Amino acid sequence: MKAFTVLDGLVAPLDRPNVDTDAIIPKQFLKSILRSGFGPNLFDEWRYMDVGQPGMDNSGRPLNPNFVLNQPRYKGAQVLLTRENFGCGSSREHAPWAIEDYGFRALIGPSFADIFFNNCFKNGLLPIVLPAAEVDRLFKQVEAAPGFRLRIDLDAQTVATPDGQTLRFDVDPFRKECLLKGLDDIGLTLRHADHIREYEERRRATQPWLFG
Amino acid sequence: MPAKTLYDKLWDDHVVRVEDDGTALLYIDRHLVHEVTSPQAFEGLRLAGRQPWRVSSIVATADHNTPTDHWDRGIEDPVSRQQVETLDANIRAVGAKAYFPFKDARQGIVHVIGPENGATLPGMTVVCGDSHTSTHGAFGCLAHGIGTSEVEHVLATQCLLQKKMKAMLVRVEGPLGKGVTAKDVALAIIGHIGTAGGNGHAIEFAGSAIRGLSMEGRMTLCNMAIEAGARAGMVAVDDVTIEYVRGRTFAPKGPDWDRAVAHWRTLHSDAGAHFDRVVELDARRIAPQVTWGTSPEMVIDVNGAVPDPAAEKDPVKRNGMEKALAYMGLTPRTPIKDIRIDKVFIGSCTNSRIEDLRAAAAVLRGRSIAANVKLALAVPGSGLVKRQAEEEGLDKIFVAAGFEWRGPGCSMCLAMNADRLEPGERCASTSNRNFEGRQGPGGRTHLVSPAMAAAAAVAGRFADVRDVL
Ligand code: SF4
Q1: CA distances from A151 to A124, A144, A162, B123, B308 (A)
Q2: Who's near B243: CB < 8 A, 6+ residues apart?
Q3: What is the distance between the alpha carbons of residues A126 and A106, in angstroms, rounded to a whole number?
Q4: Which of residues A113 and A55 earns the better pLDDT score?
Q5: Interface test with A, best of B28, B150, B160, B350 (most A CBs within 10 A)
Q6: Which one, A125, A183, B7, B135, has the greatest CB density within 10 A?
Q7: Does ipTM exceed 0.95?
Q8: For B11-60, what is each residue's pLDDT tens digit?
Q9: B460 and B371 in contact (C-beta within 8 Å)?
Q10: Taken in order A168, A172, A177, A181, is the CA torsion positive or negative?
Q11: Of the candidates B426, B220, B413, which has an alpha carbon nearest to the alpha carbon of residue B306?
């Protein structure tokens, strides 16, 4: 997993609540057995005028000029500004895969759906929860100022705006550690293999029907 | 001992160890696997040179990509076929307690086959790379969806890294009215607390209305917990639970059964247990529900009308409503019963069990679908459900009414196979998500109960099932 330390990135705003993972990456792309290559189909139904299919050459497809990520000013954005309950719905990890593959490294919103939030951390993406009023202000600032960037420092847990404001955010210490170092948590868990075995033996004695 | 919630009990029973910051290593009893969210996990395991920790925890099936008709032709879409074949190969290489591949007599939707084979047992932790794993909480399980990285983590370690969620109690008291089902209760709850209402929580459903539900109804309810934002939903174990499990293929037998039942009887919240949030609903006030928008919280009584965004004060919500109505092709204040439909889908892990099919058939008996309904699908949740329905003659009722009687699978719930809506088509659907494009690009989904879907099929527009029962 890619480590995340400091990011100074262009911000793109996606101004709608309850963006679900079906919208982030539609089902037809879930047929892939790979982990990569989902970026061109991120928000496929909003982004293109035609219906996307796996294996299609996306470069020639008609773009929806009204979709925010198609506006030239947001090209190369690395921070996605979102509204409430982003990532709700299906547990598909293809959603953070697509977001990461597109080039985003961080998301900022007032709330994220639980499974999506968790999946981000497994893929080097940092989802940042800020109070709704602050998110709202960021939306206004992004829209008012082309080229609007934010500097995100994971270790310090801060988001710095161009006008010198510093917003603090919370992050789970374990997830922070893994993200800062790009750690594989399976390896970390397997250091406790003895504990898992002991637990298993205990339960095998008390609830043997679980081990049939 | 302090009073514990059901969630506390399930959690405490599965903690292997806890880090200082509260992150726990949680042991997983049952790992359900399907073809869409597992290939990258098996691949990751292989690339790291790791072995699965406990193969006997795995129960797998192919459901999302499999066709529901023309099984003789196999899976025609090559990309879908490759995904299903990848699961076949992975299970062949790794092993499993049970695998129900495409065309197997017991194949079906992963959340239907687990319970009906007794692979889901009270007191278990159950995970699957699928958000509707919350379904299994109906058995007094701690069950929730996980991402593919976590599928790999469970394969490799039999554990999940988890922080304890908050506990929410949703209590529904009173008798449910005629024609009002678990689906309506679920939608009413979501309408009340919102799709983000359960974020960060595990929900326990309780109250006399819940105790009065069959296991099928409880599964429908817990299935929809994720649409309320909660990864896990659960119901305490009672006689209904135990009688459902008794005698199923993988249920314990003999002395193990008695020991298991004694344990299962402890799986309820203690009197006075603390919940972080309590929500109460009066069952008598729940009418059949119909969603009008593109999020399950956009829901209203069948006798209501499409709301007017102009009346919404919150600008973010108003914007969301306007986008939803534009997508759904609906005008504010249109009565729900004036909305005409093009297709009907009865199926999905929410509503494809025998009781769901019986409820729909009861409405369809002696009636036909309206002329404007282009396609009506009845898709049993599993091969076993299908067989039982046919033994009861339900298939004949569906077919006589003009429905297509299909093979088991996810089908038009998410349209990964050939069953889908065309752009602009409007569907009365018993599934769980009315998201944009969920049932096909440009398709318009209205979530309802099986009986309401049947009533809509007959009327060609939404109708109050209570008028036809
Ligand atoms: S029926 Fe629908 S919601 Fe259920 S597992 Fe299948 S695709 Fe997911």
Answers
A1: 17, 18, 8, 46, 40
A2: none
A3: 5
A4: A113
A5: B150
A6: B135
A7: no
A8: 999 999 998 889 999 999 999 999 999 999 999 999 999 999 999 999 99
A9: yes
A10: negative
A11: B426
Write down the residue that tokens 């033994």 correspond to. Answer: B391
- Ligand 1: does its nearest atom lie under 6 Å from the Cβ of B445? no
- Kind plus residue range of the DSSP H or E element containing A52: none
Find, in chain B, the residue whose alpha carbon is nearest to that of A120.
B147
* pLDDT value, residue A39: 97
Closest CA to B450 of B343, B378, B400, B368: B378
Query: Are B132 and B432 within 8 A, CB to CB?
Result: yes
pLDDT recorded at residue B455: 98
Is the pLDDT at A184 greater than 90, yes or no?
A: no
- Residues written for chain B: 469
Residue of chain A minimizing CA distance to B98: A212
CA dist A42 and A112 (Å) reads 18
B51 contacts B190 by C-beta, under 8 angstroms: no
* B18's tokens: 């806890």
**Closest Cα partner for B26 from B14, B18, B12?**
B14
Report the pLDDT value the prediction gives residue B318, as an integer from 0 to 100.
94
CA of B32 to the centre of ligand 1 (A): 13
What distance in Å separates the CA atoms of residue B287 and residue B282, rounded to the nearest whole number? Answer: 11
Max CA pair span of chain B: 64
CA of residue B426 relative to chain centroid, distance: 21
Torsion of CA B88, B92, B98, B102, to 10 degrees: 20
Are A163 and A144 in contact by the 8 Å Cβ rule? The answer is no
Structural tokens at position B204: 């326990």
The reported pLDDT for the residue numbered B449 is 98
For residue B468, give the nearest of B458, B301, B176, B401 by alpha carbon.
B458
Per-residue pLDDT, B469:
86
B15-18 and A166-168 strand pairing: unpaired
Q: A144: which residues sit within 8 A by CB, 6+ positions away? A: none
Q: Are B176 and B209 in contact (CB under 8 A)?
A: yes
Q: Taking residues B191-205, what's their average pLDDT?
A: 97
3-state DSSP assignment of residue A198: helix
CA distances from B392 to A171, B104, B229, B389, B397 (A): 55, 21, 37, 5, 10
DSSP 8-state class, residue B176: P
Say yes or no: A50 contacts chain B, CB-CB below 8 A: no
Judged by CB atoms closer than 8 Å, whether chains meet at B149 and A30 is answered as no
Q: How far apart are CA B386 and CA B90, in angstroms?
A: 27
Contact B202, B168 (CB under 8 A): yes
Close Cβ partners of B311 (under 8 Å, ≥ 6 residues apart): none
CB pairs under 8 A between A and B: 186
The Cα B19–Cα B8 span in angstroms is 18
Least confident range from A195-199, B20-24, B133-137, B431-435: namely B20-24
CA distance B15 to chain A (A): 9
Please say whether the beta carbons of B101 and B83 come within 8 A.
Answer: no
The dihedral built from the CA positions of residue A199, A203, A208 and A210, taken in this order, carries a sign that is negative
Instruction: Name the nearest CA neighbour of B21 among A111, A176, A168.
Output: A176
Which pLDDT band, with edges at 50, 70 and 90, does B175 fall under?
very high
**CA gap B211, B204 in Å, rounded:** 12
| Averaged pLDDT, B93-102 | 97
